[in-house]
Design brief:
This protein is of the alpha+beta class. The protein has helices spanning about 10-15, 20-40, 85-95, 115-125, 130, and strands at about 45-50, 55-60, 65-70, 75-80, 100, 105.
């Protein structure tokens, strides 16, 4: 049983339609987004919705994170390309992850996720409006 069950059958279906070799890892990323958000006192809730056909996660004080499967394979977490969420993360952990420009972090395996580091990207996105300069 998932700690954060789906509340929207359409989003649940999108996860079911992901390739089987990526699905469980994307669910793990989804769980990481919700559990990281739960640690942030400023984040009252995280909305799960569809944006650009992808499951998306946004707080009232944040910018959206999306989960998906890139054309190159594997799986990824994506942020709006005009935000600095990915570029700031790349400045800190550029050699530890594979990036899709300033729009996403790409993964091939579960070991690529590195939750202790990735939670910093998630925190930044979920509180993005508080930290913009």
């Amino acid at each position: 049983m998932m700690k954060y069950p789906f509340s929207d059958p359409q989003i649940e279906q999108i996860f079911a339609d992901f390739p089987s070799d990526s699905r469980l890892h994307l669910i793990e990323l989804r769980q990481l987004i919700f559990s990281t958000g739960a640690t942030l006192s400023h984040v009252s809730k995280i909305d799960e919705c569809l944006r650009w056909g992808q499951p998306s996660y946004v707080s009232p004080i944040g910018t959206a994170l999306r989960l998906g499967v890139p054309k190159s394979g594997g799986f990824g977490i994506f942020a709006h390309c005009q935000s600095n969420v990915i570029s700031n993360f790349a400045q800190t952990f550029g050699t530890d992850f594979r990036f899709d420009g300033n729009r996403g972090v790409l993964f091939e395996t579960r070991e690529d996720i590195q939750p202790d580091k990735l939670c910093l990207l998630i925190k930044h996105a979920l509180t993005y409006k508080l930290n913009r300069n």
